[in-house]
């Protein structure tokens, strides 16, 4: 076990990093960033907020002269998606997703929890072709927020519930990534995409930990000297290809090696996650939330009167509850899958409501869906925020009551 540094500054950084690895702390930072953005955007100084996120910089020769808001959505969010891909890889190799029978219930719940909200959104927006393209928005579940709410209100709940939520959210995020890649990519440049695939092949080869790649892993050359430029090149090429650049993060995360080689004390997957998670929770996600959540509210009536916002709210709050809870129940009736003995259906109902917290990925898909329709974009973002708030409040009530009963001696 590594002891924390004894000098004041490293010791402080160690404590801050440890705090940022907590689900609750990361979620609270997200909430604070979103609240600050909403307050600024709706204040008399709201124009300066718009001016800030519109500031552009970057090399034009590489088509990377982007606004601050786009850098956050395409760049910083790629780090978050790298961690998501890395978690997926760990689950596939060592966790719940390794055993299909054990993972059947949360996987089916995740799939139903994506399809039902999309169907509800589509049904509400059938008569509005200009908003129908936002059907992917209510499919997403925000891992960071959902785990944070569970950490805050779920003291005393069975650990199996967090495992269920984590598996569901990871599969949900994988589905959202596929939706972005397939349905929200307009044009693809073959050359840059081929270059990105070649870069990913090199990345995967270096992760093998044997053969020529073992020479690099065993050398004194810092890994960042090799992997950071390579990751930057892959991200740049994916961005230039027309595929959303966050896909680069997921792909590299899925290529991480999750087992330690002979000369290693831990796997690259765990080392990189330990290094990057505090930055993702403390910088990447809050900055993205701050630059994306600044919605100007022009009245609840205007928001709920927009079919896009109405579809999002119905899909995230009602659709997730029906899809996750109903999908779980149906799976136990028609397959050999069983609910963990430690869990009750009220627990799954609470998690189903938690899954309605869309936020990060939903905001990203909202940007992709309505980039050319500013008013619809504002209303849709407001719908995401309101739905996430409602879902989080209802989930906290359901899970809080259950946790209280478990903590109180009968």
TrEMBL record:
- Membrane spanning stretches: 20-41, 61-84, 105-124, 136-157, 227-255, 275-297, 309-329, 349-370, 382-401
Disulfide bond as a keyword of this entry, yes or no, is: no
Q: How does it sit in the membrane?
A: Multi-pass membrane protein
Q: Which UniProt keywords apply?
A: Antiport, Cell membrane, Ion transport, Membrane, Sodium, Sodium transport, Transmembrane, Transmembrane helix, Transport
Tell me where it resides: Cell inner membrane; Cell membrane
Return the InterPro entries for the record. Na/H_antiporter_dom_sf, NhaA
Question: What is the catalytic activity of this protein?
Answer: Na(+)(in) + 2 H(+)(out) = Na(+)(out) + 2 H(+)(in)
HAMAP family, from UniProt?
A: NhaA
The UniProt entry's sequence similarity note says: Belongs to the NhaA Na(+)/H(+) (TC 2.A.33) antiporter family.
**PANTHER family per record:** NA(+)_H(+) ANTIPORTER NHAA (PTHR30341:SF0), SODIUM ION/PROTON ANTIPORTER NHAA-RELATED (PTHR30341)
What is the annotated role of this protein in its UniProt record? Na(+)/H(+) antiporter that extrudes sodium in exchange for external protons.
In its UniProt entry, what is this protein called?
A: Na(+)/H(+) antiporter NhaA
């Amino acid at each position: 076990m590594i002891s924390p540094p004894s000098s004041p500054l490293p010791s402080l950084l160690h404590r801050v990093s440890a705090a940022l690895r907590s689900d609750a702390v990361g979620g609270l930072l997200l909430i604070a960033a979103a609240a600050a953005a909403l307050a600024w955007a709706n204040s008399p100084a709201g124009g300066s907020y718009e001016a800030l996120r519109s500031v552009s910089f970057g090399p034009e020769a590489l088509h990377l002269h982007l606004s601050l808001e786009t850098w956050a959505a395409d760049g910083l969010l790629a780090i978050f998606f790298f961690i998501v891909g890395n978690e997926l890889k760990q689950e596939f190799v060592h966790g719940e997703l390794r055993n299909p029978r054990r993972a059947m219930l949360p996987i089916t719940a995740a799939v139903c929890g994506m399809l039902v909200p999309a169907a509800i959104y589509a049904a509400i927006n059938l008569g509005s072709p200009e908003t129908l393209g936002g059907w992917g928005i209510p499919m997403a579940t925000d891992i960071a927020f959902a785990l944070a709410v569970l950490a805050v209100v779920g003291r005393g709940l069975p650990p199996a519930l967090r495992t269920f939520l984590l598996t569901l959210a990871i599969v949900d995020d994988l589905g959202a990534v596929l939706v972005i890649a397939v349905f929200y990519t307009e044009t693809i440049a073959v050359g840059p995409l081929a270059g990105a695939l070649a870069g990913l092949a090199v990345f995967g080869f270096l992760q093998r930990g044997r053969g020529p790649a073992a020479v690099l892993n065993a050398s004194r050359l810092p890994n960042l000297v090799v992997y950071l430029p390579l990751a930057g090149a892959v991200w740049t090429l994916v961005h230039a290809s027309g595929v959303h650049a966050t896909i680069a993060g997921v792909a590299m995360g899925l290529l991480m090696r999750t087992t330690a080689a002979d000369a290693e004390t831990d796997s690259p997957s765990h080392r990189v996650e330990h290094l990057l998670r505090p930055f993702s929770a403390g910088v990447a996600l809050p900055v993205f939330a701050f630059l994306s959540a600044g919605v100007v509210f022009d009245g609840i009536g205007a928001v709920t009167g927009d079919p896009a916002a109405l579809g999002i709210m119905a899909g995230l709050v009602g659709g997730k509850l029906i899809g996750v809870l109903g999908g779980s129940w149906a799976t136990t009736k028609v397959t050999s899958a069983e609910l963990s003995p430690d869990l009750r259906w009220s627990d799954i109902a609470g998690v189903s409501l938690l899954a309605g917290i869309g936020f990060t990925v939903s905001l990203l898909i909202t940007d992709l869906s309505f980039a050319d329709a500013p008013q619809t974009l504002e209303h849709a973002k407001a719908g995401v925020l309101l739905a996430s708030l409602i879902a989080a409040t209802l989930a906290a009530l359901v899970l809080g009551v259950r946790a209280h009963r478990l903590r109180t001696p009968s």
